[in-house]
Amino acid sequence: MLATLLGQVAADPELWADFEALCSFGGRVAGTKEEAKARDWASARLGGISAGLVRRDPITFSGWTCHRSEVTDVDSGRVLAAIPLLGTASTPPGGLELEVLDVGRGLPEQIVAQGDAVRGRALLVRHDYGFGTGSVHRRQKLMCATDAGAAAFLIAKAIPGIGPVSGSSGRNGGTGIPALGLSSEAAATIAAPRRSACIKIIVEGQDTPATTEVLVLDLPGSGPGYVVVSAHIDGHPLGESAIDNATGVVAAMALARAAAPIMSQFSRGLRICLFGAEEWALVGSRTWMDSLSPEARSEMLFNLNLDSIAGTPRLTALTSGFINLPAFIREATASVGTLLPSIEPLMANSDHANFARHGIPAARLVAGFNEPDSVQLYLLTSSDTRHLVAPAELKGATIIAAAILYHALSVSSETMAKLRER
What we know:
Blueprint: H1 2-10, H2 14-23, H3 33-49, E1 54-73, E2 78-80, E3 82-84, E4 96-102, H4 108-113, E5 122-126, H5 138-147, E6 152-156, E7 179-182, H6 184-190, E8 198-219, E9 226-232, H7 242-259, E10 269-275, H8 283-291, H9 294-298, E11 300-306, E12 315-318, H10 325-334, E13 342-343, H11 352-357, E14 362-367, H12 391-410, H13 413-418
Parallel strand pairs: 4-5, 5-6, 6-7, 9-10, 9-11, 11-14, 12-13
Antiparallel strand pairs: 1-2, 1-8, 3-7, 4-8, 8-10, 12-14
């Protein structure tokens, strides 16, 4: 059965076609028409695997619409390349004119070290490479800046020529400060040693209730329980959200196609979950998981989350603090000649974190971990388009995911139970 499953994935002619089709919907920001169209497309594709079994669970979240956004260098009058972070707080009518305080990378200790100098200023920090053991997430920097009394938050990529960096503010309708992503060139205009830089920020946004959906396809086995393969459909306004996360969505659909004909031979089933609003601080999967009964959550024995799985051929498993998962992953991937490395502490950077929060063993597959020179550098920018992904890399990642899926479907109940140990 392993050879059958891997062979079906390796020969799947629809994997790359699905990837290009999903990229064609654009960035797919949650709550927008393009995300809804992409979700309809994905639902139809899943329905073709098992007609009538696709469930569309609605999720309401605090959406946001930006009517105007602008950052201007006051001295020169030059409008800087910038984009508001999703859901960010608005400025007062007429905007804010602020001095800029450049704190370099913007580590929490760097921000705290500035003391009262932060208060009332626009804090400028740099965007960390997203996948690394020492990476500090944007929202952690933003939270520290807010707590320190900053009046605005600016975050910039270090890569010239690609425009501003996007991302979520994580505000979700609450309080906060205006937060925007800048281009490398914009940051250079206002950065230290120009200590007297002054900018004007205008953000006119509107919080509005928004909806997305979780697409759920159940392919039952011969007994109880499900292995859950998840990915998120939504993305950001720049580029095509190709690596992040068209790669994960189409791989999940390919696994469902390959597994569907042989599911009766496994004692547990396969559940595909395609989430929306992941880029809004994981609110889609969090709301959905919290809405389930304890009995429904207990059916889910293991979560394999596919997020940004191509762009480099090297994959890593983020195993969320479950002590037996690294060995489980290594055993699974040995069947395809790979001993996949694991990062063991919980990294709450995708939907697997909400499964782990409820005690469900969860691992995220991600490409480019600790490879800061890989094309994963371009995530959250206009450069995250299909040209960054090689067909062979996408297929190879999907085959590795298939090996993990097979292992999770076929091992003993005792082995699966041990995965819950932390």
